[in-house]
Amino acid sequence: MTPDAGPREAALRVTNLHKAFGSLDVLRGVSLAAHEHDVIAVMGASGSGKSTLLRCINLLDIPDAGEVHVGGELIHMGFDRRGQRTPADPRQVDRIRTRLGMVFQRFNLWSHMTVLQNIVEAPIRVLGVPRRRAMEQADHLLRKVGLYDKRDDFPAYLSGGQEQRAAIARALAMEPEVLLLDEPTSALDPELVGEVLKVIDDLAAEGRTMLIVTHEIGFARAVSSRTIFLHQGMVSEQGPSRQVLDEPRSERFRQFLSGGDWGRSALTTPSQSGENESP
Amino acid sequence: MDLAIVWESLPRLLEGAVLTLEITFVSLLAGLCLAVPVAIARLSHRRILWMPAYGYMLYFRGTPLLVQLFLVYYGSGQFQPLLDQAGVWFLFREAYFCAVLTLTLNTAAYTAEILRGAIIAVPRGEIEAARSVGMSGLLLYRRIILPKAFRLALPAYTNEAVFLLQATSLVSIITLLDLTGVARIIVARSFEPYKLYIAAGLIYLVITYTFVLVSRRLELRLSGHRREQPVGGVGSASGR
Amino acid sequence: MVTLDLHGYGWMLWRGLGLTILVGLGAMALAVTFGLLGAWGKLSRYRAARGLAGTYTTVIRGVPELILILLVYYGVPTLIQDLAARAGHDLRVDLNPFVAGIATIGLIYGAFATEVFRGAFQAVPRDQVEAARAFGMGRALMLRRILLPQMWRFALPGLGNVWMVLIKATALISVIQLEELMRSADIAARATRLPFTFFFAASLFYLGITIVSMVIQGRIESWSYRGAQRG
Ligand SMILES: Nc1ncnc2c1ncn2[C@@H]1O[C@H](COP(=O)(O)OP(=O)(O)OP(=O)(O)O)[C@@H](O)[C@H]1O
Ligand SMILES: [Mg+2]
């Protein structure tokens, strides 16, 4: 999958990314490259920094060190008056973000807008696409994710699976160069997982460049071209998905893969149960 | 009981009620326009923005409306030469202007506090989703944060509007003939205090609950998109 | 720092402040009383009590404070005189502005305290009540020993808000000539022809009360939350 990496720039290149929250080192030098049409599965135990990695890529979190290139363009970083690392040019960040589609674990649809409004909002307001065109494109996307009949509903009236498909359509409407998906099915009831995976599967077949955080091993094997395993803030294993997933080299990864249960229950251990407890 | 005096006065009381409503709506509207930037400034991380907003909100929420009204209406007299020079003295001579100005400043402070709470309550995820598609700054506020915050703030804001409606009765103290002002004048001439004040009180009651009813309807309509409960509002004593 | 030259009227403001706080405390005590009664009415089994309490809060919330103050101070004595006259007595009733002020403000904020107490009673976990029942406590005993003591900590933040609004509302009773802070400032302002100076000074006094109250409320709240969280 990577032989043509040579002359052409990677769609997304992350180099030596570091991120700490207080004294907690979450990312300790993560590097990866996604070339056009690559589908990379990111795996790792809960709290291993998968979400943080995605959030650092589009700067929802500010990395402490390291570089992010999108389509060859480096996101420039500087320092603010208090010495905090910060993007040198906020406009560049906004621009880069339009080229990276993000699909959140909890969908994060705008609840005061209908599905259709959610999808056309950014193309119209941020990209300046004419309303007519944005609507046409939205209709097309809605058919593709199977939500055409729900276009005028508010998110509160959708099922989780429908919400996530709407969120994917919203991200696609920006025609992003790379799609970042953060555990797109982990907030869904088991019977709804399939419909979302199906949509992502179709996107992969179209040749979309994607970075998918997922715990669905079968799905990763079927859809992703490469898999990386995050452990203790670093990429501890990576390679072609079939190879890596079928013959994991490290003990940790083997444990992770075999303990299907362990991988699942990890969803609800430390980092997330913390959120629920807060009063 | 002889209610003739009430029936006779009714047209004038209603005229007063019209002024009451006018002052209420003008101040509410102007106050809302002022409250939005104040709330945003209050939430800023920059000191030159949040500190003045904080001071303004503290002062206008921490002192009685009556003092504020007197400060503007009578207090401005102390600066007559200055205001004259600036060419605005003729405004401050008008009780109407002073009343609307004070009520606007006052309600804006309360509204800013309501909006601040509502803005904080806008789900982080929805804001991050907006950022992730390249929205920021004013666009982010205008399209995502404020529309959402306004809806969250609506119940509390309805309360604020009711409080302001009642608070306008103070303008009678600086000689305006609002509903209370008319009642007071008629009382001064007729010496029939309880009948007229009760009549005025009933008119206020009717206006208040009509307004509450209408805004609850509006709330329901505007919250068609949402199943969860709005924030704040319940039993929270605003007021002056 | 800017210093306000009060031209020797400073003592008057301080005296006014004293009276304002006095009226405030008196009215607050009354408001708490009315509030407890009102909450009892609203949560009562008796329809009449519920209706009465409901009317009370509805009317108070729908009618401006100023109207109520004028009604109590000027209306009530006249009403009594009229009724007496009809019965053939010639009576002259005058209300003391201090008493009228406390009564009216207390009555008004009793309505707000009613909502606070109602919420607080309802916030006490049901199983506390059930436990009391299980031990054979009667309604009155349960109210006194279980509900009331637990209710307070839920009521405190709300009562703090009521106090802060109430103390500002006392400025209104200057219209019935009670020489509290606002009226004192008014008198001084007229005498010196320095209205801004005195009203501003008065406003700072009120602001002072508000800030002190906020600090105390913060303390009380953190104190009353001990043991309230958890579980
Ligand atoms: N804003 C933050 N402030 C402090 N700590 C944070 C923050 N965000 C994440 N963390 C911590 O960083 C670590 C990595 O979090 P992250 O969400 O990236 O994990 P994850 O691999 O996505 O886990 P999961 O599978 O549960 O989603 C966790 O220990 C988490 O508690
Ligand atoms: Mg995560």
Instruction: Describe the main β-sheet of chain B briefly.
Output: none
* Global shape of chain B: flat
Number of domains of chain B: 1
Name the structural class of chain A. Answer: alpha/beta
First-to-last CA distance of chain B = 35 Å
- Count every beta strand of chain B, where a strand is a DSSP E run of 2 or more residues: 0
CATH architecture classification name of chain A? 3-Layer(aba) Sandwich
Under CATH, the topology of chain B can be stated as MetI-like fold
Please work out how many helical segments of chain B DSSP would assign: 10
Q: What sequence of helices (H) and strands (E) makes up the elements of chain B?
A: HHHHHHHHHH
- Counting copies of identical and different chains, the oligomeric state is heterotrimer
N-to-C terminal Cα separation of chain A, in Å?
Answer: 48 Å
Instruction: Assign the CATH topology of chain A.
Output: Rossmann fold
Query: Uncertain runs of chain A with pLDDT below 50, 5 residues or more?
Result: 1-6, 261-279
Global mean pLDDT of chain B: 90
What is the correct CATH architecture of chain B?
A: Orthogonal Bundle
* Strand content bin of chain A: 15-25%
Secondary structure layout plus pairing:
The complex is a heterotrimer of chains A (279), B (240) and C (231).
Chain A: E1 12-21, E2 24-34, E3 39-44, H1 50-57, E4 65-70, E5 73-74, E6 77-79, E7 85-87, H2 90-99, E8 100-103, H3 115-127, H4 131-144, H5 160-172, E9 178-182, H6 190-206, E10 210-213, H7 217-223, E11 226-231, E12 234-240, H8 241-246, H9 251-258, H10 260-265, H11 270-277
Parallel strand pairs in A: 3-10, 3-11, 8-9, 9-10
Antiparallel strand pairs in A: 1-2, 1-4, 4-5, 6-7, 11-12
Helix pairs in contact in A: 3-4, 3-5, 4-5, 5-6
Chain B: H1 4-42, H2 47-62, H3 65-73, H4 80-85, H5 89-92, H6 95-121, H7 124-132, H8 137-167, H9 179-190, H10 193-222
Helix pairs in contact in B: 1-2, 1-6, 1-9, 1-10, 2-6, 3-6, 6-8, 8-10, 9-10
Chain C: H1 10-42, H2 47-62, H3 65-86, H4 97-123, H5 126-134, H6 139-169, H7 181-192, H8 195-224
Helix pairs in contact in C: 1-2, 1-4, 1-6, 1-7, 2-4, 3-4, 4-6, 5-6, 6-8, 7-8
The complex binds adenosine-5'-triphosphate (ATP) and magnesium ion.
